[in-house]
């Protein structure tokens, strides 16, 4: 995350689901010196194992893992442009079709609450309803996905969208895609990245790739 420019220092945290629980980064350990044995295992009853305390934000990782079976990994960062918008309590609307990458027609901003609290976790769950990413008021952003690689890619995409939206706002009021168009976009995102053997029975209009004529085979 630091190399990609979406985080810095000891801010942010990561978790990955395992059988019976999840692994999470420890509290206050810089990423460049973190060792594998410092990664903390937690169970689904809110307990942890080992000598290292989990991230101060373990509560929202725990609650998301409990309530979102689609969350194989969770990434929270204080990326610059997401955080700038979050400090203004601005959601990112449908100024660009790639907003659909988060699963909805906007990227919401969760209400502010003190870091590490149950109130913050509750606010994030609301903002993530039917979404895989949100901003966090006066704080940063959070993404979830089926695995760590896809979740990291989503975090980079959301920060890119925040960067673009921030620049659009410097020019003026953006022209937003309407709800009907975003419905079409979201339908297509449902097949994004899938190959032909996974697409049987799906209407052409809902395909992310409307393929040209197949010349061989």
Structure description:
It is a single chain. The chain is α+β, with helices and mostly antiparallel strands and 217 residues long. It has 2 domains: 159 residues, Class II aldolase/adducin N-terminal domain (L-fuculose-1-phosphate Aldolase, 3-Layer(aba) Sandwich), CATH 3.40.225.10; 32 residues, no CATH class. It is 29% helix and 15% strand. It contains 5 helices and 8 strands, in the order E-E-E-E-H-E-H-E-H-E-E-H-H. It has an 8-stranded mixed β-sheet with strand order 4-3-2-1-5-8-7-6, sandwiched between helices. Strand 6, helix 3 and strand 7 form a beta-alpha-beta unit. Helix 1 crosses helix 3. It is globular. The protein starts with 12 loop residues before the first strand and ends in a 28-residue tail after the last helix. 33% of the residues are buried.
CATH hierarchy, class of the largest domain: Alpha Beta
Apparent shape:
globular
Q: Quote the beta fraction.
A: 15-25%
CATH level-four homologous superfamily name of the largest domain: Class II aldolase/adducin N-terminal domain
Question: Which series of helices and strands comes N to C?
Answer: EEEEHEHEHEEHH
| Helix-strand category | alpha+beta
Helix content: 25-40%
Largest sheet, strands/sense/barrel: 8 strands, mixed
CATH topology of the largest domain: L-fuculose-1-phosphate Aldolase
Biggest sheet: strand arrangement: 4-3-2-1-5-8-7-6
Figure out the total of helices: 5
Q: Stretches where pLDDT falls below 50 for ≥5 residues? A: none
Tally of extended strands?
8
CATH architecture of the largest domain: 3-Layer(aba) Sandwich
Span of the ends, CA to CA = 42 Å
Radius of gyration: 19 Å
Number of discrete domains: 2
Q: Report the average pLDDT across residues.
A: 91
